[in-house]
Specification:
Layout (H helix, E strand, L loop, with lengths): L2 H13 L10 H31 L4 H4 L1 H24 L1 H17 L1 H7 L2 H28 L6 H9 L2 H16 L7 H10 L2 H10 L2 H19 L27 H22 L1 H9 L3 H25 L5 H21 L3 H14 L2 H10 L6 H10 L3 H16 L2 H4 L1 H29 L1
Helix pairs in contact: 2-7, 2-9, 2-11, 2-12, 4-5, 4-7, 4-19, 4-20, 5-7, 5-12, 6-7, 7-8, 7-19, 8-15, 8-18, 9-15, 13-18, 13-19, 13-20, 13-22, 14-15, 14-17, 15-17, 16-17, 16-18, 16-22
Length: 442
């Protein structure tokens, strides 16, 4: 074979687009991709729970925002233990443990409702989120590493595109089965208290959350059994020879793109969770619509998020992921600014469409953050998952701003600032990565 023909073959190989899903891994890929759908349901049931618990437990917006704090603290505290478990036993064990915790947490909603105390619901949410920490810590790097690194961001965006379908399902379940549609005025509350019917009413409202979570728990346990019975492939770097290093936390300090990804993901998750958590309240305060209408509008914005995810996975075949994220970040800066400055129908629709443009951010930040980490991928991925705690931190801050200023629109200045930082990360990523590669060669 001549040197010229060899060079031509190499050129043709370089020009061939890598397969999105490699041969022989379709079934485990489908099982894991379904998890993105499954954990989207409780994520966005939280948005309904915030409104429901404000009613059934007479909570302030700040107190109700603790739903997200309890939920995302589970991510923060369990992501590293999840990474350590999978470093020892592999991704499959992470999936099984995560699903079992998810199911147990969902079943705990029943005793929490019987007891009728808000902190018990927060504890159940913490257990659910602990399970989801395992699932996300395992799923994101598994999908990214299961095939060609060149298609990692596109593959992860495709898998993540099923997450908003779960989000839509969660919002619909909450709107239809949890919201009763009964909204009492102050005089009606006083009248019911006098008649002794207010406490039974609150108990009825509390019990409405039980059935959806019982079903969700059963599905999670069933999926754990199915996962246990399925043979999973060993992905690159999952199993090392005895004595070989699994990577060290201190090694990650040499990757500026990874460190910036942690900050960007913290702010992104805070922006996403805060936007959706107070969206129903934004609708009601700005347009004075009924909670059911607000719930359907929430479902609609989640639909826009799903369209954005699927669309982005296609666009990334032609546009570099960091460039697409930079464009979407700038658009969201403009849209959220409109939502802050012009509350009402104009601001509502501006906030509504931010979901489309935020859709690309989580998987892209994750894929860009772990790119080039090698043996440090698991622990690096776990730290990025830990940054999901942004949802626990920024959501109550938004509630506090809304409560103190009496303007929910001003609370959206928090997502506005987050998108500014994400835009900076998107524009600087290529330059930082180039610097990292030059440093590694020295």
């Amino acid at each position: 074979m001549s040197i010229g023909s060899t060079e031509n073959e190499l050129t043709q190989t370089a020009q061939v687009r890598p397969r999105l899903i490699p041969h022989g891994v379709l079934i485990p890929f489908v099982l894991v991709t379904a998890l993105f759908f499954l954990w989207g349901i409780p994520n966005n049931l939280n948005d309904v729970l915030i409104r429901q618990f404000m009613k059934s437990f007479a909570l302030s917006r700040f107190q109700a925002g603790l739903v997200q704090s309890a939920f995302y603290m589970g991510y923060f505290l369990l992501a590293t233990p999840a990474a350590l478990l999978m470093r020892r036993f592999g991704y499959k064990y992470g999936f099984i443990v995560g699903l079992l915790l998810f199911g147990i947490g969902a079943f705990l909603f029943w005793p929490a409702a019987i007891i009728g105390r808000y902190p018990y619901f927060l504890a159940a949410l913490f257990v659910i989120a602990s399970g989801l920490a395992f699932l996300e810590t395992a799923s994101n790097p598994f999908v990214a590493q299961i095939g060609d690194p060149r298609s990692a961001a596109q593959r992860l965006n495709f898998a993540q595109a099923f997450n908003p379908l779960g989000s839509i399902t969660g919002a619909l379940i909450g709107t239809v089965f949890i919201f009763s549609g009964i909204e009492l005025s102050g005089s009606q509350v006083a009248s019911m208290q006098t008649a002794g019917t207010y406490t039974p009413y609150l108990r009825t409202e509390t019990m409405r959350v039980v059935a959806p979570y019982m079903i969700l728990g059963a599905v999670a346990i069933g999926w754990a059994v199915l996962t246990a019975l399925t043979r999973f492939p060993v992905v690159a770097g999952e199993l090392q020879a005895e004595g070989e290093s699994h990577g060290r936390f201190r090694d990650l300090l040499g990757y500026p793109t990874f460190l910036f990804a942690i900050v960007a993901q913290f702010l992104y998750v805070g922006a996403q969770v805060g936007t959706w958590s107070y969206f129903i309240q934004y609708v009601q305060d700005s347009t004075h619509q009924h909670e059911k209408i607000a719930g359907y509008l929430l479902t609609g914005t989640l639909g826009a998020f799903g369209v954005g995810r699927f669309g982005s996975s296609v666009i990334m075949r032609y546009v570099r992921p960091h460039r697409l994220m930079a464009l979407y970040s700038v658009i969201n800066i403009v849209l959220v600014a409109v939502g802050v400055l012009f509350p009402g129908w104009v601001g509502l629709w501006a906030i509504f469409f931010t979901s489309f443009f935020m859709s690309v951010m989580f998987p892209t930040i994750f894929a860009l953050g772990i790119e080039g980490l090698g043996r440090n991928t698991k622990i690096g991925g776990s730290l990025i998952v830990m940054s999901i705690v942004g949802g626990a931190v920024l959501t109550p801050i938004m509630g506090w701003i809304s409560q103190t200023t009496h303007r929910i629109s001003l609370a959206y200045a928090v997502p506005l600032g987050s998108y500014c930082v994400i835009a900076i990360y998107s524009f600087l990523w290529q330059r930082m990565q180039t610097a990292e590669m030059k440093s590694a060669r020295i």
